[in-house]
Design goal:
Strand content: 25-35%
Radius of gyration: 30 Å
Oligomer: single chain
Number of strands: 8
Distance between the termini: 103 Å
CATH class of one domain: Mainly Beta
Shape: elongated
Strand order of the largest sheet: 1-8-3-6
CATH architecture of one domain: Sandwich
CATH topology of one domain: Jelly Rolls
Length: 224
């Protein structure tokens, strides 16, 4: 499956049509988007039977750092509902059909949200094809000390660990982006209130000087 954006009020993850030329499919996709105030955005992911869909999301920026999250099955059943959460991780065993997940910011009337999410798809049918491709090019395996199955097991183990490393690095980048946004917001807030305090101090100092000068002024009128 490849990530394709469709401007139809909601975004969709769609499979290419049968027989169309395509690159090697990716089982790990991530996306960052801005969700305006009072809006709801939905995505679709086609899945196969007995596969696994893992979805992780984080709110990187926006007041409250929260959003409503819905995950629906192809039959329209609600599988997951998170109310005003800043992040979440969900894994479901899938059936044939399109799974829909939505991010809802309709409860906010002012603040937009920057949202990051990552999809990890397992058991989508590519591993068996990879094994068949290996068997086409390997001959005389009985002469080797290590069997083909051992080689495939080692390669799959390395592949799984690399995928997990990429996933962790992606999540760390998302956490870093959210923390940076919070720090920048705090920095702007501190600068604003520092300027307000400075202005108040200047006004109070001017008033005090004026009052002190007025105490020492000679208000007696001289007689002529």
């Amino acid at each position: 499956p490849r990530l394709l954006l469709v401007p139809l009020g909601c975004l969709a993850l769609l499979l290419p049509p049968p027989g169309a030329a395509e690159f090697s499919p990716s089982l790990d996709s991530d996306f960052t988007f801005t969700l305006p105030a009072g809006r709801k955005e939905c995505f679709y992911q086609p899945m196969r039977k007995e596969a696994s869909l893992e979805l992780e999301y984080q709110v990187l920026d926006g007041a409250g750092l929260d959003v409503d999250f819905h995950l629906l099955s192809p039959k329209g059943e609600t599988l997951v509902f998170d109310e005003r959460k800043s992040d979440g991780v969900h894994t479901v065993e899938t059936e044939d059909g399109d799974y829909m997940f939505c991010f809802d910011n309709t409860f906010s009337t002012i603040s937009e949200k920057v949202i990051f999410f990552e999809l990890i798809l397992d058991n989508m049918g590519e591993d068996g094809q990879d094994e068949e491709d290996w068997k086409k090019y390997v001959t005389g395996t009985d002469l080797l000390d290590m069997k083909l199955e051992d080689i495939l097991e080692s390669i799959n183990s390395v592949k799984a660990r690399l995928s997990k490393s990429v996933q962790i690095q992606t999540l760390l980048r998302a956490f870093e982006a959210r923390d940076r946004n919070i720090q920048e917001s705090n920095f702007d807030r501190v600068n604003f209130w520092s300027m307000v305090n400075l202005g108040v101090m200047v006004v109070v100092s001017a008033v005090q000087v004026y009052m002190l000068k007025s105490l020492f002024e000679d208000k007696r009128k001289s007689r002529t």
